[in-house]
Amino acid sequence: MPMAAATTAPGGDCFGWHPAARLVDGAGLPVAPDARFAPEIADRPSGPALAMALAGQGRAFRIGGQGSVTAGRGMFETLTGGSLGNARRVVRSQRSWLASFAINADLFGLSAASRTAVLGRLSHSLALYGALEGLCIGAEVHLLDDLRPDRQRAALAARAITHLYATPAQLRLLAEAAGPPCPVLTHVIIGGSKLGSELRLALAKMAPQARIHEFYGAAETSFITLSGPQDAPHTVGHPYPGVTLRILSPDGRDCPMGEPGAVWVQSPYLFAGYAGEDPGSAVIRDAWVSVGEVASQTPEGLVLHGRAGRMVTVADRNVFPEEIEALLASFPGVSAVAVLPVADAARGAVLVAMVQGDERHAGAIMAAARTALGPLIAPRRLIWVADWPRLPSGKTDLAALRKGAGPWP
Fold first, then answer.
1. Residues 6 or more apart in contact with residue 264 via CB below 8 angstroms
2. Are 366 and 324 in contact (CB under 8 A)?
């Protein structure tokens, strides 16, 4: 017999389907709360996937990804952005998200009268967070991940959605799609990257009553800062309730106001570690976590300067060039490769691959890369380099290669 979902309110120990909550799929059909639990769950169809996860009544689960879930009761796994489909698996306590559900209910006016929508697949932590939050609070949750942007926009209007969780890339597609305005949309909660001024104006036209809330965070940290209409648009706002923030120099001292340094966070919302054999990229030290972001504190709020190292954001996804290089290096015709970002107005950045090898394989390389990585993450161009620049250590001279990458287009 199917197992009924638990009914745990926010602030408890495990996720549960609030008695007042309703779940609606992309077609507008209700999804029943009863389902048979499984720890590893495919992220499509999203409605049954979410019901299956909640049927565990506190047992550990993961939606999307690969590998067995080994965490104990009261835990779950979510995924970081992954370039090769093997995203890092982040282990969390369910309590770490429940702790912020109640805070957001107050900050964003979430209640049983709210109608929340998420646009992304539940394998993305932002969509999973928004959907679980709504069901635990008692709202009506709409999963729109299987609709085209124009139909997503139509659904937001027709279903009178009041709260929306989305990334800037998703919002850009909504704003560009022909469709009706969303006059009752009152709160848009944005994660993934900074909202540009043009997109902010387009969003205001689409949803004139909506308050824009941008948050800075990561799968490992959840919320770090939150900004609202009162904050300077070039910042990511101020620390989220319950978060202690430090900006540290490489030698471990606290940076003065305005000086860039590494972001370190302590809060009730931090992850417990990584699953599997991947050691991950976050650094944990004495109950503090850093994901390698560089920022500076200003009177107006926290200003982000970018990731340390080579990590780059493409269409709101954190991408590791080294993973793509390893893939491309395995293809016939490639003897050396380096993947570099170039600025792109629509996606923040796109990737190009500097390659040494046999150019006759170029078509096959591009096709295989798009198949493995998808169209957003796959390099947009191969630039063939006859004389590969190397440092005295033998490593590739990335600075020399960047001069040949050129602008995008």
1. 245, 246, 247, 248, 285, 288, 289, 290
2. no
What gap in Å lies between CA 56 and CA 74, rounded to an integer? 10
pLDDT band at residue 4 under the 50/70/90 scheme: very low
Q: 3-state SS of the chain: helix, strand, coil percent to 5?
A: 25, 30, 45
- What global pTM score does this model have? 0.76
3-state secondary structure of 283: strand
Name the CA radius of gyration of the chain, rounded.
Answer: 22
Average pLDDT of every residue of the chain? 88
Q: How far apart are CA 186 and CA 354, in angstroms?
A: 45
Residue 46's H or E segment, with its range, is helix 46-54
Which DSSP category does 34 fall into? -
Distance CA 40, CA 61 (A): 6
Q: Nearest-CA neighbor of 53 among 158, 118, 135?
A: 135
Answer whether 31's CB lies under 8 Å from 51's CB: yes
Query: Using one digit for the tens of pLDDT, what is the confidence trace for 207-248?
Result: 999 999 999 999 999 999 999 888 888 899 999 999 999 999
Q: What is the pLDDT of residues 53-64, one digit of tens each?
A: 999 999 999 999
Query: Cα–Cα distance between 213 and 186 in angstroms, integer?
Result: 11
For residue 182 the two structure tokens come to 């969303």
| CA-closest candidate to residue 311, choices 320, 298, 322 | 320
pLDDT for position 3: 34
| Contact yes or no for 80/67 (Cβ under 8 A) | no
What mean pLDDT is predicted for residues 329-353? 86
Please name which of 136, 40, 145, 53 lies closest in space to residue 89, comparing C-alpha atoms.
40
Could you give the CA distance from residue 41 to residue 29 in angstroms, rounded to a whole number?
21
Residues 6 or more apart whose Cβ sits within 8 Å of residue 9? 16, 18, 136
Tokens standing for residue 138: 């008692």
Characterise 192 by phi-psi region: left (phi > 0), alpha (psi -120 to 50), beta (else).
left
DSSP notation for 153-185: HHHHHHTT--EEEE-HHHHHHHHHS-----TT-
